[in-house]
């Protein structure tokens, strides 16, 4: 397999800005949300792996698919190359695809995603971030490796009541900013009642320009 630096030859900050723009300009449709949610249900029963945050996990999987599609087409990545340069510890959404006519990451076997994640952790120990408030390492929702450096992406879902624990979220993102070459926070606004926009603006104030915070509105996602 080619070296990662040959797969995505872009500076981390530039790639993070590119992904942020991609997500910010996304237009999720009800059928996209339904397709991802149904695929997750097919793979994981009643979303047992993520029941407590099912809506957030649907949003994460939708965005993950969008990011992989963009990177795969732009850099002509073969499916076998994806697990090493676009991966995370989250298993349920690895083979869920809402754009099967445009790319083929759902053809990558679960075992290959798992081995790619293990390898990524060996080569980039910074993906596991120490957090004094937790017994285990904290990890972002998605990692992209570019020029042998880590770009981390965190996804949040904002429903009718918006986001909870903004200061905790800001602390989490600061740790990523300290450990990774670049990071960004993407918020899916499933309510469009202003609470998500308010939360995003507060987080921008808490985090400053080092951590882009992007928000996109879409159909409401059922909690489970």
Q: Could you name the key traits of this structure?
A:
224 residues; alpha/beta; 5-stranded mixed β-sheet; 8 helices; globular
What does this entry look like structurally?
There is one protein chain. With 224 residues, the chain is of the alpha/beta class. The chain has one domain. The chain is built from 8 helices and 5 strands. Strands 1-2-3-4-5 form a 5-stranded mixed β-sheet, with helices on both faces. Helix 7 links the parallel strand 3 and strand 4. Helix 3 crosses helix 4 and helix 7 crosses helix 8.
The total of helices stands at 8
Biggest sheet record = 5 strands, mixed
- Tell me the β content: 5-15%
Helix content: 40-55%
Oligomer kind: single chain
Number of strands: 5
Shape: globular
Short description:
By secondary structure, this protein is an alpha/beta fold. It is built from eight helices and five strands; from the N terminus they run H-H-H-H-H-E-H-E-E-H-E-H-E. The protein has helices spanning 4-7, 12-24, 30-44, 54-74, 82-85, 110-123, 166-179, 195-207, and strands at residues 86-87, 142-146, 149-158, 182-189, 213-217.
List strands and helices in order, with pairings.
Elements: H1 4-7, H2 12-24, H3 30-44, H4 54-74, H5 82-85, E1 86-87, H6 110-123, E2 142-146, E3 149-158, H7 166-179, E4 182-189, H8 195-207, E5 213-217
Parallel strand pairs: 3-4, 4-5
Antiparallel strand pairs: 1-2, 2-3
Helix pairs in contact: 3-4, 7-8
């Amino acid at each position: 397999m080619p070296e990662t630096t040959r797969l995505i030859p872009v500076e981390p900050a530039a790639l993070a800005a590119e992904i942020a723009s991609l997500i910010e300009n996304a237009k999720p449709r009800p059928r996209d949300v339904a397709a991802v949610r149904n695929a997750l249900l097919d793979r994981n029963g009643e979303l047992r792996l993520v029941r407590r945050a099912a809506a957030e996990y649907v949003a994460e999987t939708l965005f993950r698919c969008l990011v992989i599609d963009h990177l795969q087409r732009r850099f002509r990545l073969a499916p076998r190359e994806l697990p090493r340069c676009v991966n995370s510890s989250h298993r349920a959404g690895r083979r869920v695809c809402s754009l099967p006519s445009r790319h083929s990451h759902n053809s990558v076997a679960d075992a290959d995603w798992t081995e790619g994640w293990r390898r990524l952790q060996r080569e980039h120990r910074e993906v596991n971030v120490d957090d004094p408030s937790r017994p285990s390492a904290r990890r972002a929702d998605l990692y992209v490796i570019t020029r042998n450096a880590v770009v981390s992406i965190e996804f949040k879902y904002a429903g009718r009541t918006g986001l909870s624990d903004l200061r905790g979220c800001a602390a989490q993102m600061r740790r990523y900013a300290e450990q990774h070459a670049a990071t960004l926070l993407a918020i899916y606004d499933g309510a469009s009642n202003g609470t998500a926009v308010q939360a995003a603006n507060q987080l921008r104030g808490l985090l400053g320009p080092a951590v882009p915070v992007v928000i996109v509105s879409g159909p409401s996602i059922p909690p489970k």
